[in-house]
Amino acid sequence: MHNSLLLFGATGDLAQRYLFPSLLHLLRDRLLPEDFRIVAIARSEHDDAAFQAWLRERLGDDYEAAALDELFRRTQYVPADLSDADAMAAALSRFADRPAVSYLSTPPNLFASACRGLEAAGLLAPPSRLVLEKPLGHDLASAQAIDATLKSTLDESQIFRIDHYLGKAPVQNLLALRLGNTLFEAVWERRWIESVDIIVAETAGVDGREGYYADYGALRDMVQNHMLQLLALIAMEPPAAMDTDSIRDEKRKVLRALRPMTPSAAAADSVRGRYRDGVVDGQAVKGFSHRDDVETFVGLRAWIDNWRWAGVPFRLVTGKRMPSRTSEVVVTFKPVTHWLFGPDERKRARANQLRVRLQPEETIELGLMGSLAASEWSANELQPMSLDLAMQPPKRRIAYERLMIDALKGDQTLFVRDDEVEAAWRWIDSVSAAWREAGTPVRDYPAGSWGPLEAQPFLPRTLTTHGGRK
Ligand code: BG6
């Protein structure tokens, strides 16, 4: 396990919200090597004391002083300007004495000069590793340009592209559920599955990230990475082994089988929305008004053109300022082949449904039909019922904890490979080109609603019955 972490963007939002809290948890649980050290790097001309005071002010309410002291004992702050490769190399070469993981939690326009600086400082020589945060480009061409820069100094085996959804335990559980149970794997295909819904709804708005969002929108911010990774885990073929490349090979194949969106399909298979003033959790909130042609909500019907999924719609829905924070996957099965019960039962009949909620709670529900709830004399009075499992995870971890440990250990399984990123961008580019050519409008929705009216056909009924539709 590598024992040095160079954290670039150490005073940024991600670092204070997730990365330092993750490190505090890993230190608390003694999951890091005894001689583990952190080099916190950002542009501000802080010294150690000023950096510590800054971080203590942000995290002090949530952590005991002793935990922060332990973090600071291992942390050194170094000011460096990433856009100046020479100055950066001068500031950092003294850390090249042991193999390090450099973590770029910075905007992508700094990746190229940061790589040059790291290389000049001797910090990219194998077995050193580089962790990158999204966005990895704005479209396929810019993603390929970033990749070419990385590959001029690094081998793919040294590059760790973060998609923090892959570090979430309930996301990993999707694979375990699918591949560890005959019950599901046997029917995991077009003959038995009617549709798949993947929903990531947030109550949060764009707050504070208007500039970034105005350039990216929900399609690039959420679908290109998190939603397509969820889709890939659900739809991929079972890998021959649970090793890094077997899993990534299968994910890539599914992403490449996504049918490109065409301008003529855009009207039926997509909807875009932007939140306006409204009320979320009882609070009045302002609408997103930074740009008129950028979506904060997207609904897509994706088609996977392969043997297993031909004709099965995958509906992807994500939005900001929704009525509740809900991420879930809903697999709806086809009706039974032959109906033996009466016409009233047929009216009550519900398709079997597997509903896996990823957050905020971790629950698994299996919707079945049975007669237990009916009169004790009639086995024929079918009613919908549900097998419910509420998970009590032993310890709720921030997704980044798992990913940091894996990067330090050199395990790339939960990181995204170059060809997966490319395949995802290729499909996203088809969607944005289709929108452009078809002139797909961005429709308004009030904050606190489930998106524009036109989004109704994209929302599963479970969301409206259980998910707290307001
Ligand atoms: C990030 C997006 O990648 O994921 C944010 O940039 C989004 O816009 C966030 O809010 C959602 O992550 P989580 O873990 O809160 O569901």
Automatic annotation (TrEMBL):
<feature type="domain" description="Glucose-6-phosphate dehydrogenase NAD-binding">
    <location>
        <begin position="7"/>
        <end position="173"/>
    </location>
</feature>
<dbReference type="GO" id="GO:0004345">
    <property type="term" value="F:glucose-6-phosphate dehydrogenase activity"/>
</dbReference>
<dbReference type="GO" id="GO:0009051">
    <property type="term" value="P:pentose-phosphate shunt, oxidative branch"/>
</dbReference>
<comment type="function">
    <text>Catalyzes the oxidation of glucose 6-phosphate to 6-phosphogluconolactone.</text>
</comment>
<dbReference type="InterPro" id="IPR036291">
    <property type="entry name" value="NAD(P)-bd_dom_sf"/>
</dbReference>
<keyword id="KW-0313">Glucose metabolism</keyword>
<keyword id="KW-0560">Oxidoreductase</keyword>
<feature type="binding site">
    <location>
        <position position="164"/>
    </location>
    <ligand>
        <name>substrate</name>
    </ligand>
</feature>
<dbReference type="InterPro" id="IPR022675">
    <property type="entry name" value="G6P_DH_C"/>
</dbReference>
<dbReference type="GO" id="GO:0006006">
    <property type="term" value="P:glucose metabolic process"/>
</dbReference>
<dbReference type="GO" id="GO:0005829">
    <property type="term" value="C:cytosol"/>
</dbReference>
<dbReference type="Pfam" id="PF02781">
    <property type="entry name" value="G6PD_C"/>
</dbReference>
<comment type="pathway">
    <text>Carbohydrate degradation; pentose phosphate pathway; D-ribulose 5-phosphate from D-glucose 6-phosphate (oxidative stage): step 1/3.</text>
</comment>
<dbReference type="GO" id="GO:0050661">
    <property type="term" value="F:NADP binding"/>
</dbReference>
<feature type="binding site">
    <location>
        <position position="168"/>
    </location>
    <ligand>
        <name>substrate</name>
    </ligand>
</feature>
<protein>
    <recommendedName>
        <fullName>Glucose-6-phosphate 1-dehydrogenase</fullName>
        <ecNumber>1.1.1.49</ecNumber>
    </recommendedName>
</protein>
<feature type="binding site">
    <location>
        <position position="134"/>
    </location>
    <ligand>
        <name>NADP(+)</name>
    </ligand>
</feature>
<feature type="domain" description="Glucose-6-phosphate dehydrogenase C-terminal">
    <location>
        <begin position="175"/>
        <end position="461"/>
    </location>
</feature>
<feature type="binding site">
    <location>
        <position position="202"/>
    </location>
    <ligand>
        <name>substrate</name>
    </ligand>
</feature>
<feature type="binding site">
    <location>
        <position position="43"/>
    </location>
    <ligand>
        <name>NADP(+)</name>
    </ligand>
</feature>
<feature type="binding site">
    <location>
        <begin position="81"/>
        <end position="82"/>
    </location>
    <ligand>
        <name>NADP(+)</name>
    </ligand>
</feature>
<feature type="binding site">
    <location>
        <position position="320"/>
    </location>
    <ligand>
        <name>substrate</name>
    </ligand>
</feature>
<keyword id="KW-0119">Carbohydrate metabolism</keyword>
<comment type="similarity">
    <text>Belongs to the glucose-6-phosphate dehydrogenase family.</text>
</comment>
<dbReference type="InterPro" id="IPR001282">
    <property type="entry name" value="G6P_DH"/>
</dbReference>
<keyword id="KW-0521">NADP</keyword>
<dbReference type="Pfam" id="PF00479">
    <property type="entry name" value="G6PD_N"/>
</dbReference>
<feature type="binding site">
    <location>
        <position position="221"/>
    </location>
    <ligand>
        <name>substrate</name>
    </ligand>
</feature>
<dbReference type="InterPro" id="IPR022674">
    <property type="entry name" value="G6P_DH_NAD-bd"/>
</dbReference>
<feature type="active site" description="Proton acceptor">
    <location>
        <position position="226"/>
    </location>
</feature>
